[in-house]
Amino acid sequence: MNQSTNPIDQLLRQVQLAKALNYEGLTAYPLIRDMLLAKDYLTLDEALANKTAVITEVSEGGSVPQLLLRNKGGQAVFLLDGEELTGAKQNRILNISILAPAMKDTVIPVSCVEAGRWSHSSPDFSTAPRAQFSASRAKRSAFVSEDICQTGQRRSNQGEVWDDISAKLDSLGSQSDTQAVESAFMDHDQQLNAYVEHLRPVENQFGAVFAVKGRITGLELFDSQETCRALMPKIIRSYALDAIDPGLRAGATVNSASPEAFLLQVRNAAINEAQAVGEGKDLRFDNASGIAGGALQARDRIVHLVAFVMPEQSHKSSDRVYRRRQF
Q1: pTM of the entire structure?
Q2: Which member of 23, 67, 73, 290 has the greatest number of CB atoms within 10 A?
Q3: Which of 74, 102, 85, 45 is nearest to 226 (CA)?
């Protein structure tokens, strides 16, 4: 198929890089464009706040890799890849971005980020002001892509997620009786909030390329400036937790050409397609392309795109479930 038919390539051709924003080891290159869309869905924060949606365990007994979203409202609900949910039997993160249909129940794939608790602290879940820290999110994204390929599911390597959390808690000097990653974020809350303040979205921004300690790491892109402004603080905190980690070594000095080169790599990456959990399709990068992550395509557009430089541990791709799209 011709490269011009690749929806991710088409989208990234429309973006411009604004002046870089820098703060304490984290650089954000804002992605802007002239044509901005109004969002036609609720964020999860909005849906839970107005009580049109609720997230619970799938049953009284629960299931670590699955939760139940009940959307009782008349609008779809957008759930962000890596977004953290707190409460119920243990804290979780979303394994993939989802546009949950209106007036329907949706079983959502998740990972546990609190290994030492399996008892109800509340009947349902609340959203946290953060997403999974970026280094772990990249590895989990790569594994989820492979799991879709091999099994048609969207499971993470749960043991790897727990190992990443344990290492992060140790590196940042945080303690948690239940091995909750929440403790690392809470212990450094004031520091992380400073990153949010210094890296606030600029006019017409709908995404960003990020560099941690001088190393291009990933990008995040939304269909709407409104969604970007609402959810970017969670993304910034996820990158900032890595930026303050003394265990992560600095890379080369940030080069002004690096974000352009990364965007080109994302545009050229091979894509695999699968039916999404909710509305639309999941477009997942082939890990062999050197890019981890993917996009949610729904309602004739890319609703959300997340991409990372491929982590060191990669997984061989399979076409068993995907209908491969070669661009």
Answers
A1: 0.93
A2: 67
A3: 45
